[in-house]
Amino acid sequence: MEFFGAVQSGFKGIIDFNGRSSMSEFNYWLLFLFLIQLMSIIIDPPNPIILPDNESQISETNSSENVVYDPLNSRLFSFLYFTMLLPTTSLAIRRFHDVNKSGWYVLLPFTIIGVLPYYYFTSFVKGSSGKNKYGSDPLGK
Questions:
Q1: Cystine design at 48: which of 19, 30, 44, 67 (Cβ 3.0–4.6 Å)?
Q2: Reduced to 3 states, what is the DSSP secondary structure of residue 50?
Q3: Which candidate, 90, 100, 104, 103, places its Cα nearest to that of 25?
């Protein structure tokens, strides 16, 4: 699947938690999210948070203040982040269906070591070929 087709498919399946999504569709969607979030930070930069020296965990540069930028302090970034949460979740559930796993695996990042298996299954594991219990092959092979 190409980039624009993956983005279009992501928006069409906002509330579709059934079926399967290919690895390329999921990875292009993540690339799309990265690009729009980067553009949102460029358009509306977050307000800096200045930490006192005793609360800082960042190595001190040539100033007496330590500045931290939290992207969620940008209104545009926050809006896009929460707007894209539902389509990303539905796409991740369909991606787990493609590797013949339950959609509940989307909750893996909430466990202690779940982030690595989550990204492994969604971004690197090839989907099962042919039909599985969640539907037919999204690439039509």
A1: 67
A2: strand
A3: 90
Q: How far is CA 17 from CA 12, 88, 93, in A?
A: 12, 11, 6
pTM (2 decimals)? 0.81
Alpha helices (runs of H) in 44-141, residue ranges in sequence order: 75-83, 85-98, 115-123
pLDDT digits (tens, 9 = 90+) for 40-95: 999 988 877 777 765 545 554 555 467 777 787 888 999 999 999 999 999 999 99
Under 8 Å between Cβ of 20 and 103: no
Q: Identify the CA nearest to 66 among candidates 75, 80, 55, 77.
A: 55
